[in-house]
Amino acid sequence: MSADTPEATGTDDSFPQAGRRRLILPTPVATNGSGNPDVEAEMLKQLKPGTVFMMGDNPALPRMPSRPRLLDFFKCRITEVTYRHLLTSAKRALDAGQDEKIVLACLLHDISNGCLIRTDHGYWGAQMIAPYVEEEIAWAVQNHQALRYFADESVGYQYPESYVRFFGDDYVPPEYIRVAAESAKRHVWYMSARLVTIYDTYFFDAADTVDPEIFQDIIGRHFREPKEGLGFDGSSVAHMWRTVIWPNNAL
Ligand SMILES: [Fe+2]
Ligand SMILES: [Fe+2]
Fold it and tell me: Is the pTM of this model over 0.90?
């Protein structure tokens, strides 16, 4: 076994594929151009009796309920840094007395880069939640991505100092982001997305500890949890939630 090829072992036979070596094929968007070796061909050669490509629950991850709800994803799948970041952003909006829709938008604004994909995270996140929330909430999540690059002195929003560290002092957002921000500024829901950028915290090491349960009532009022569970309701985005549940499936 090469040190470069990820796998999950374990003999707990309450998990699928028990007793076999489970190879985890890295997802192309996570490896292309990263300098990590392309292990696809090598891993195909490793297939033999007793070795499989992972499909289904990964014993290395917390097992999710069969009908998962929104907060189950927070507790079981969202990365530690983003978990604290989202809860802190939502708590700041809550403490400021913002409308519950804004609080929920803050709670969900980075859900994509917390558990699914980083690139274009606002767009992915908006799609993930669109069937379950008011259109304005998904719109705010999508458009916070572009607006956070552009100051609005009239509401006290400045370009995040941390972005200078993150991306370099000469970083210029691409044209589609500039166009999206211009369009969002003229939109009737502009302030909803702008508020997300205002309650966003840009220093990820300074997040507080917030109990996600304090948002359960707001979620109950503004997020239509499907009775079949997220990922299993047959919606146009169910596959996104299933991908989060089973991030290591080979196909
Ligand atoms: Fe974001
Ligand atoms: Fe954020």
Answer: yes
